[in-house]
Amino acid sequence: MKNSKKQNYQFGKFNHGSYGAKLFDERWKKLRKSVLKRDFNKCVVCSSVENLQVHHKQYHFSELKRTFKEPWEYDIKYLVTVCKKCHQKGHSKYKIPTKYIK
Ligand SMILES: [Zn+2]
Ligand SMILES: [Zn+2]
What we know:
Bound molecules: zinc ion
């Protein structure tokens, strides 16, 4: 595993619980790209263009499947572009709400 990948992995784990390696999934990469495009490749909080990440505004737990949705299964409206700094700040301040769906 390359160094940068390892760092990302740890960061993802820290922020998004069990997502971990899923953030390297092609489906996630594709969705992530369209979120960045919609937000003009800028952090929506501070307008930074560096170290951009995509944050989930809420997590969806499927009661039918008894599991959380995969990161790429969310509608783009639940996703937002933030820089690493604002992302970390946000997560230390707020708890991400979990919505229970069918
Ligand atoms: Zn920012
Ligand atoms: Zn996040």
